Amino acid sequence: MTAETPATADEDGSGGKMPLLDHLIELRSRLLKSLLAIGLAFGVCLYFARPILGILVHPLVVAGQGKLIYTQLFEAFFVEIKVALFAATMVAFPVIANQLWKFVAPGLYRKEKRALLPFLFATPVLFTVGACFAYFITIPIALKFLLGYQGEVGGVTQEALPSVGNYLSFVMQFIMAFGIAFLLPILLMLIERAGLVTREQLISARRYMIVAAFAIAAVFTPPDILSQLLLAIPLVFLYELSIFAIWFTGRKRKTGAEAAPVEPLEEA
């Protein structure tokens, strides 16, 4: 076979070899399509920036705070830009994930594709569950706790006047932190499937995970202890859920392997 022979797919379903330049061209094409999706979504979300911001400030209104201020003339403008970019990233995520899969999939074997597809579909689902958990449960509890410091202190009225920029950063930080945290089962199951860790190692590292969960919560949440607990406790729960999911999927794979028919050896 000469060097000019075109690359063909292997029998087991993997793509053929591709020159480095073709890889770079393919990567550029996928990146441009992803950026185009974000740009189009940004244009639409910028038009609806105020209604989207209204959704984000709803937990604050429910908590009894009906006023937001901005202390710099350009702050309100940049808040709408941040809202539009944040929403555009969420809306365009399926397109980005699809482009990433199309770039990676040709180099995978058929068995590897079947193994990765469930994780690909589960990623946006778990991220959405984490974001909804933050929006509907964690943020209202944290706001109620933090706004509870209002009142009379030594004869002086203490009143919360959050700026729109600070509040938006607060909400986005919670949503992103919980969305990413809820991807922990996928991460642990992937590295276990790759053979980097075992279920027994994860069980033995449980005490270290508890410490790590509180350290992560301290970094990605406001400094009050309640907000940290609201992230650390779900992280520990998700870690335990990951250990159970690894046991369940491993048992299922083992059962499937035992049930698979064994082909008889051909006689010479």
UniProtKB/TrEMBL annotation:
Protein name as catalogued: Sec-independent protein translocase protein TatC
User: In UniProt terms, what function does this protein have?
Assistant: Part of the twin-arginine translocation (Tat) system that transports large folded proteins containing a characteristic twin-arginine motif in their signal peptide across membranes. Together with TatB, TatC is part of a receptor directly interacting with Tat signal peptides.
Source domain of life? Bacteria
As for subcellular location, the record says: Cell membrane; Membrane
Q: Tell me the organism.
A: Sphingopyxis soli
Assembly, in brief, is: The Tat system comprises two distinct complexes: a TatABC complex, containing multiple copies of TatA, TatB and TatC subunits, and a separate TatA complex, containing only TatA subunits. Substrates initially bind to the TatABC complex, which probably triggers association of the separate TatA complex to form the active translocon.
Its family remark reads: Belongs to the TatC family.
Q: Indicate how the chain sits in the lipid bilayer.
A: Multi-pass membrane protein
- What are the record keywords, sorted? Cell membrane, Membrane, Protein transport, Translocation, Transmembrane, Transmembrane helix, Transport
Under InterPro entries, the record lists:
TatC
- Residue spans crossing the bilayer: 35-57, 77-96, 116-147, 167-191, 203-220, 226-248
- What gene codes for this chain? tatC
